[in-house]
Amino acid sequence: MTIIKNVRITQGQELVAATVIAEGGKIQRILVEESLGVTESFQGNVVDGNNQLLIPGMIDVHIHGAHNFDMMDGTVESIQAVSKACAETGCTSFLVTSVSSSLEALLQMIEQTKRVIGKEQGAKIAGIHLEGPYLNVEKKGMQNPVFLRHPDLEEMKTILDVADGLIKMVTIAPELPGGLELIDFLKERGVVVAIAHSNATYEEAQMAFSKGASHITHCFNAMPAIHHRAPGLVTAALEDDSVSVQAIVDGVHLHPGIVRLMHKIKGPDKMVLTTDALQAMGVGDGDYLFGGHQVTVTDGVARLQDGTLASSTVTMNRSLQFSTSFGIPLADTIEMAAGTPARVLGIADVGQIKEGFVADLVLLDEEFNVLTTWIDGVEY
Hints:
27% of the residues lie in helices and 29% in strands. It has helices spanning 76-88, 103-116, 153-163, 179-188, 202-211, 232-239, 256-266, 316-325, 330-345; strands at 2-11, 14-23, 26-32, 45-56, 58-63, 65-66, 69-70, 91-97, 124-131, 167-172, 192-195, 215-216, 244-247, 271-273, 286-290, 293-298, 301-304, 361-364, 370-375, 378-379. The two termini are 15 Å apart. The protein has 380 residues and is of the alpha/beta class. It is built from 9 helices and 20 strands. It folds into 2 domains: 2-55 and 356-379, Urease, subunit C, domain 1 (Roll), CATH 2.30.40.10; 58-345, TIM Barrel (Alpha-Beta Barrel), CATH 3.20.20.
């Protein structure tokens, strides 16, 4: 039994004093206000939170690398490095995320992920997110055009067979030939279909949503800007209440006004904070090879040689910090980083500090630095 006392947690929009008791990997009791003294009757490992903020472990649905490791390296070591980096920054579950590549390179990454899952040295693998290769070259961003191709159902069948249920999200450009058929195929298999690196019109996006696409990867980035006579993919997503959207909140990818607008329209239950981080996360400025491109990180911002943004170096705890500094309520930012991604992925018992839920917890100081991470109730 672990007793985390003298912490603050969110209840609704309020911060309340609490003690959280975990045992067997689950949250067993939450004591607030007048009940706090009851902890004296419990026996276990007592942690004094010193009145700091305790939040549910965050979930990153879109991360490529960290600590000089790219998960497309095709090694166990690279995936474990990201697992540890996530835990250190308050993220307790993540999707191993690909970039567009050859089929052989993708299958190698999947095989290594299967070797790591269940043996993670830090954050838990919640599955795999395929970002590509079925993306539009006109909105390629940092995706390598050499590997971009039209949707191929036979290739996707091969990928799903090898992955053995691990593919949880696939990002596509639905306007490509075969895109709508691929949405049908993936939805039948319980995969979240996301859209990005797409030049879809408003009408094409609506058609994709009607087929079952339900998520937007790094919303506003690598897709057409909103125009009053050509509203495009973003407008279609913002007005469709069934669609959730990712936001890279790092002070670079999205203007604070856009972050506030997304929050105002979609609310915290349809907005997901994510990092889209590359291997420079946790390392710093310098030159990196990512997705077959030379990427230079300067002042924490990653760009290709032509100036195109190439993923980010932000961490989940810093994304929380940026979001609150932009004026998003704390309780909403926590939901966007934990509860909402859990719902998007269909995971029923994580992402909230709630009795019976998995004891994935993070203690943060006033500057959003991670003090302690617990995964399945065990201190990392």
